[in-house]
Amino acid sequence: xxxxxxxxAITSYAYARVFNPxxxxxxxxxxxxxxxxxxxxxxxxIKGIISDKDDxxxxxxxxxxxxxxxxxxxxxxxxxxxRALVRSNCxxxxxxxxxxxxxxxxxxxxxxxxxxxxxxxxxxLMGLCYExxxxxxxxxxxxxxxxxxxxxxxxxxxxxxxxxxLSIDEETRFEKGLRARERRLVKSLMEKGVTAPIHGKYYNDxxxxxxx
Length: 212
Ligand SMILES: [Mg+2]
Description:
The chain is an alpha/beta fold. It has one domain (7-211): Rossmann fold (3-Layer(aba) Sandwich), CATH 3.40.50. It is 35% helix and 10% strand. Strands 1-6-5-2-3-4 form a 6-stranded parallel sheet, sandwiched between helices. The chain binds magnesium ion.
């Protein structure tokens, strides 16, 4: 696994950190997807959902749905049907997932298509907007990582929903450190009054307590 090395994320993160820190702040922050009301999102005009895989829908590096979020995944499918898509930085990424075996196993378990291609998040999100056939403002992305999904979603103009991660206790020391640094940074930015990019549907709705 070379998932931790992502040059696009590192350079985009550095850009955002220096020039536009609001790109690192999510519009909404929740413990896990069980706190998201997908019917309300739909009513508010969100026409498509893009979700990360590891630590959001499955346990890290496991390709089966995580039992705690099973009902919510069913809700996503009922509300969004084929307008829901998984975008992982492992499953469906050409050089991380040869033959897309991980993507295929994940699709079988979740019943949601996994996007396939060359680019990882954050840049890998940009092409997806065309697949949904609507402006990125009408899409929401759910991710447990600031430097990939949240940053990419904000760069595209989507609603960004941050989750804390399902299997954080089992992460490596490096991964734990990275996640803790991301959360500390976002918390300090929010305390200084930095907000997520202005969005027509959601703005400054993040829950600070989730970062404490
Ligand atoms: Mg993840």
